[in-house]
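Q: Sequence in, structure out?
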Amino acid sequence: MIFFRSIQSRITLSVLLFGLLMILFNNWRNKDWLTERQIERMTQEAADTGSRLAGLLQHLSRKQQERAAELEMSYVSLSPDVDLGLVCNKEGQVTCATHMQWYHMNVQQTPLAEEWRQHSSVLTSMEPAVEWDSEQKNLFVMVPFFETYETTSRAAVLIRYNSTLALERVSEEAWHESVRQAAVLLGSCMLLWFVLDELVTRRVRKVVDILRDASSGKGPPEVLKGKDELSLISREFAGTMEKLRIAENMVLEAAEQERRKIGKDVHDDLCQRLSATKMKAEVMRGMIKDSEGKIASLAGQVADELSESTVIARSMAWGLAPVSIEKHGLKDALENIIRFAEKSYNVRCSLDYTDVSSSLTNSSKELLFRIAQELVVNACKHSSPQVVSITVRTEDDHIVLSIIHDGSAFSEPAEGGNGMGLHLLSQRLRTLSATLERTSETGTKDFQIAIVRIPLNNP
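A: Exactly. Output:
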């Protein structure tokens, strides 16, 4: 699941699972501890109750206040942990009991017969006995006392406690404590989730968005505010991208300078030589006599081919060094693109131009010209259009260049198949902090649209 892929969810889930394990362990340990404490408490309570009751019954017996003794036994029976309580003389006759059915019976006939037999020696030693059974379910207390002032008048208080209810209360208490801890853990995990989302996850998403925007050439990357590690990463990345942009600008400028140098050399040297050779060929054709018609025809063909070569060479020189941008402006350079496309690819071209010269530097104008040139030539080469339209306008805070044609739609090259033209196009877009969007309009005739948006605040 996508939920478990994020670091935020993994950290929160790990804390939750660890906390649950700790709660389960603590529940087990807390239950054992509470059980031990409960057993100790019941043992101490049984010893204190037996001693207190034995002393009180000894006093009441000597005063012959049987009703008061029965009342005291009824108080003992109010304890939810007391299972049965008896008062027996040394012959084993029950003189008082928490349950009336055992009154005046022999102790051997009561549920405490086994305990009486095991601890009858208490009447001899006159030392109280407090003992749990093997399962620590029942606690037996036997405390001797003298019914009269004679040492032979011995009796004992027998009380059996049942720990079932007490231990159930312990288990419920341990469980309730675990539930409270689980609620606190759940609240803590939710708080941790929101803290991670606020301090980490959202900022990480912002860094990812910055990286994506930078890779798509949407302008210089943003810098996260703050002084944490993510802010440091964003600042370092922004600085690296700025250095890369400067390096790309330097490379593009060096390439343009080399283009201009080659174009100037072609125009000033090769084009002049071709023009001179063409003129000589025309002169030579005029000097040849009519009797030598075949030679004259051949000389004419040479002159025509040299004329065509001169036009091609001049076009190449113009493409490499569009001096019209510096002399006549961006509009004239775009019109030259139209003339070149019409002559080379036999398409009808048009230009809708709004003057944007004041918003662009000379280098930005040249980059915009190169972008338009690449888009138009690519459309003519690969889409086979009949009509191409170039539009330059301002829109909001952008300069918008639109190339519209009626050819086939642009198809992305296979991976690893990007040509140098597309690579240079991407570099120029990044340098201008521009974006390229390709869309289509369907109707009676389909049109393909390439839109380039250049921010007006671009240096």
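The CA atoms of residues 307 and 325 lie 26 Å apart.
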